């Protein structure tokens, strides 16, 4: 009895099983490389700093204005921190991709099941966990802003995906550089040359060339006060498409250079190229003339774009995205007006939201005062220092009649204005410091308002400081009783101090401060 062996029978696994095994190997290598990547010092340090700074901002670093976030500013704020993490990821992924070349083990990979292009994919996938954590951090930061009762505006998902896309793009670049320039100096050299190229381009164009600016991975545009989202002029969706397309395109090129030649890969690379081109084409037009005209119109004639509501005796007008803040404005204004005397105590005011002349989104400018009687300006930020600054604006109009007249005040009326505004605050002394540019309570300084600032002499500062130390009810009675004289431009500082029961300073004269 004999056994016949069929030597011609193929002893190879089924194609589906081989594909499944290959994919599992790629994922296993990606997990290993992700762990190794986290243990590299640059990535570990910058990743820890990135996550730690986000936690710190959420739990400990809180400004009063954070209680009233604007969504279309909050979404952009999630982007800038990802750039440093991206640089660290780029350099360390580049070094990891060249590990076998440095150790002289490249030739040993030829006997393994995993091909060279699959190892390139694995190195790219090792960055995915970092991009995912970046996406979670951005979502948590934006979600924390969204959960605050004072949040307003319209956020953009396209702005939120920029941070994780930047990290992912950096990893793909690191692998591609390793293929094009197989040296450990490739990553640092690319970062240095890229940074220098950005500086040169910015110097040559003055940083004002729209299409060139939007080729940067992150265009944060921070610094200016929030403006209505309809005139932001940020092509966020096109920029997100550009980043996603560029990431996919560079990945396709990397795999092709590493030996991948399938039709599907070539087709996906072409699709990524089209997507990248579409993103660049969509974000390149600046529309600057139309934007500038629309912003100027909103600045000069805000009433054409606003709705109004009456709270108590006054009218509150705002841009559509800020209607939720009207209650807070009304409470702040009513507290100031309750301390006023004469006709000002029952005067009808118009609180109108305004924006300055906006030339770009990274430089702030002031709002010019108006000559409209009884109209008070409020800005697009609220909370923190903005509350006492708004109170100074309300008090100035109650005393002087309009903002333009108030901007020229330098006599004893400044004392009345500052006491009205500050006595209405929960912590008058802290509010006093916050509205003064020098942050102190001693010498002459400038007090901030939503429009022009208010100059305070050293004697006016002393009188207001003394008044704030006293019980509010006792000073309120004197202010109401002597309202006409305290709001007259002819009243001297010495007379104002006498009417309010504050001892005169030694050597103080009877001249008004604006007469020097």
State the gist of this model.
It is built from 23 helices and six strands.
Describe this structure in words.
Helix content is 55%, strand content 5%. The chain is mainly alpha-helical. It has a 4-stranded mixed β-sheet with strand order 1-2-3-4. Strands 5-6 form a two-stranded antiparallel ribbon. Helix 2 (41-59) packs antiparallel against helix 4, helix 4 packs antiparallel against helix 10 and helix 9 packs parallel to helix 12 (236-257). The radius of gyration is 32 Å and the shape is elongated. The protein starts with 14 loop residues before the first helix and ends in a 17-residue tail after the last helix.
Q: SSE layout and pairings?
A:
Layout: H1 15-39, H2 41-59, H3 71-74, H4 82-97, H5 99-103, H6 116-125, H7 128-146, H8 157-160, H9 162-180, H10 186-205, H11 210-213, H12 236-257, H13 263-283, H14 288-300, E1 307-311, E2 314-318, H15 326-337, E3 350-353, E4 375-378, H16 386-400, H17 403-407, H18 413-423, H19 428-435, E5 445-447, E6 454-456, H20 458-468, H21 472-481, H22 483-486, H23 493-499
Parallel strand pairs: 2-3, 3-4
Antiparallel strand pairs: 1-2, 5-6
Helix pairs in contact: 1-6, 2-4, 2-7, 4-9, 4-10, 6-12, 7-9, 9-12, 12-13, 15-16, 16-18, 18-20
